[in-house]
Amino acid sequence: MVHIERTVKLQGHIIQERWFDQLERVMKLHQGSYTVLEFHVGKEEKDLSSLTLLIHLPQQEWDPLLEQLRHPQLELTVVEEAIQLQRCTKDQTAPRDFYSTTNHPTEVYWEGQWIPVSYQRMDASIVIRDGKAICTKLRDLRAGDLVVCGEHGIRIHPPQQEDRHDHFAFMTTEVSSERYVERQVRHLAETMLEIQQRQGRIIFVAGPVVVHTGGVQPMVELIEKGYVQGFLSGNALAVHDIEHALYGTSLGVHLESGELAPSGHKHHMMAINEINHAGSIVEAVQKGVLQSGIMHALVQYQIPFSLAGSIRDDGPLPDTEMDLIQAQAQYATIIEGCEIVIMLSSMLHAIGTGNMLPSTVKTICVDINPAVVAKLADRGSAQAEGLVTDVGLFLTLLNQYCRPIIST
Hints:
Layout: E1 3-12, H1 19-29, E2 33-40, E3 49-58, H2 62-69, E4 75-78, E5 84-87, E6 106-110, E7 113-118, E8 125-129, E9 132-136, E10 146-149, E11 154-156, H3 178-197, E12 202-206, H4 209-212, H5 216-225, E13 230-234, H6 235-247, E14 249-250, E15 253-254, H7 267-278, H8 281-286, H9 294-300, E16 305-308, H10 324-335, E17 340-344, H11 347-354, E18 362-367, H12 370-378, E19 384-388, H13 391-401
Helix pairs in contact: 3-13, 5-13, 6-7, 11-12
């Protein structure tokens, strides 16, 4: 049996994360042993610790051991061990041992240096192309691509746990009081202003509940003030927003009075039909058919938007992308380079967008149902912070605190 030795470095809150318990368990499982070469413990609770180990074990046990030693909150590096590369032999198909990415910033050791992986996202492969490391979905792989395989020469930089007194230390395990919500919304508005003052990008992901709960006008005003640089949703929000703009109803109900309009059950279909007559949402705005609402504001202020279709969509609107591969590509383009994503009561589109985001992007999930907030984090978007409240009230408060941006 061939044995090997490898040097591994670890950085982070090693003791706090109880990583040594994990180390002992994994070593026993894979018949390995280790020697501590260097260990520096942070003096204060917020300080990071660093550890260097020399690991000795059977060669065939190395890859599974390394995979099990990785921890989402710690940075683990195999010292100066180059990545292993294999070529794809078939389109849309990676070598069987391909490395599957996390959403944390990642580097790979190649040709004597660490190079950052671009377009970081979870559940992708890493392709080396023209001297660059690129996150690449399986469906985008082509025969001949050089794909990173195994666990060698890869280091991940998970974001450190934020101070629980930070602006985004939202409570996700219990329903917050409205007083608490107001304080958090105020802090969020301050952060959004800071992002906009340095010309950063803020993206909203929204479900039709925005319309149903009276959030149209505050959402429109946030667009007008310059706090929205991209808007992601599905067919339903656009349909009901346009229904509200044309007929004053949402799902046939007058939002102001709560009364069902005569023949209101067909208003959403009438709205779709009017847009079909115009040709598209953009053309409806240009022709004066659509004169208010979220979609009108997005077109008027030239904010990029994408409507991703689903099997349940009525119509759908001509602007709705029913090819989900294309819809994902549109979403990915719009969120590129954003600093914060605010998700408003849309589990499907929130999780879909979250899967595309690197963990460095602040992600705020707002929903009256705490299970939605928890599920987003459970699906891998550990950076997501939750605010449990009514979306209409949230947008109203946020708009009040987001003062108009003054150009300098």
